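DM from R.C. (forwarded with permission)

"hey, sorry to bug you on a friday — could you get me a structure for this? deadline for the figure draft is monday and I only need the backbone to look sensible"
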Amino acid sequence: MPFADLITAMTTAAAEGRGADVAACFTPDGVYHDVFYGDFQGPAAITDLIEKHFHRDAEAFRWDVHDPVATDAIGYARYTFSYRSKLTGCEGRRGAFEGVAVCQLRDGLIADYTEVANAATGLRMIGFDAEGVAKFIDREAAHLMARDEMA
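My reply, with the result:
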């Protein structure tokens, strides 16, 4: 399957809450690095990410993929993402952000999915205060600095 179709199938399934279909887009040892929830490896964990986290905390997702490009080994796609919060104190508010998906590919599937996203905008839009957004940014900074590329 061409990368554009693969990434669109993955994001559409995630937005619709079909965790097993998201997991089917990954290699059996594939890892989904989610900007909000962290790392999930393997089909069961990826299914749980979608069904027990995404759709627990938000609804009415929209995840649109733009400009996907790929080689046999890596794919990139810009995306826009929005959701309606179900978090206590933020119920019903719509958050939105944009990002880039970076996918390591193997055997026509995603072996590693990483996001580079401006997700703080979505948190602020749903009502997170400055301290809450700062905690998220601090966590993202620590994650970035722990990566091998930052050595």
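R.C.: lifesaver. The CA atoms of residues 138 and 144 lie 10 Å apart.
me: no worries. Helices lie at 3-16, 19-23, 43-57, 120-126, 130-146.
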